């Protein structure tokens, strides 16, 4: 049933590798997809790194990739902003990499609060209290200011466990302002939709593969595409049984796809 699928959107951590350890099937899987004339993209919610950083990371793991092989929540955010806030000047609570990505798409970024038209929250590994204060001030003094977050994740996995991600910082802001952002990344449908649109594939021939139901699988279900949950990462059978959202297919790991292509 994967034979008629032509675009594969892969979550990365927990699906193709764990931390800095590539799964043993990953190279063969990606090579097989290419050899069959199909396409894959790496789809990540992480807005702290640039696409160039990700190309380097995969290279280190032994996977050749180009910037065209990615769809990131930073790119999706830029796309969303172009559609809805084309000329807005942005206050970015995010890394320099995120700011760079947004500038590449023509946006002006400012720290002058009087000039700000729209707030963007990212996974900010360069977070300071000043930024939290600025965002709170903007939300509390500017009633209708647009407020957007690249991704809703509460934590990001590291070698030693988790660190707070964009969703956790947005909760801090909520405690101060009672305002919630519009979220762009998984579990929303925008990233899969953007991937299909940019690369010219239909819903019927597109599959998302990931290890989290509440982000990866949900984004696929919302986008109306095929979904595969892999049990090689965060989700256990118990979590799956308890979940209301059910993937179209469940595999122990993405290596099992190879014989189905
Ligand atoms: Mg994952």
Model description:
The chain has helices at about 25-35, 50-60, 75-85, 95-105, 130-140, 165-175, 190-200, 215-225, 235-240; strands spanning about 5-10, 15-20, 20, 40-45, 70, 90-95, 110, 120, 145-150, 155-160, 160-165, 180-185, 205-210, 225-230, 250. With about 260 residues, it is an alpha/beta fold. The protein folds into two domains: about 5-45 and about 185-260, Rossmann fold; about 85-185, Rossmann fold. Strand 10 and strand 11 (about 160-165) form a beta hairpin. Helix 5 packs across helix 6. Bound molecules: magnesium ion (MG).
Could you outline the blueprint of secondary structure elements for this entry?
Elements: E1 7-10, E2 17-18, E3 21-22, H1 26-35, E4 39-44, H2 51-61, E5 70-72, H3 73-84, E6 89-93, H4 96-104, E7 108-109, E8 118-121, H5 129-141, E9 147-149, E10 155-158, E11 161-164, H6 166-177, E12 182-183, H7 190-199, E13 206-210, H8 213-223, E14 226-230, H9 237-242, E15 249-251
Parallel strand pairs: 1-4, 1-13, 4-5, 6-7, 6-8, 8-9, 9-12, 13-14, 14-15
Antiparallel strand pairs: 2-3, 10-11
Helix pairs in contact: 5-6
The protein binds magnesium ion (MG).
Magnesium ion binds next to loops.
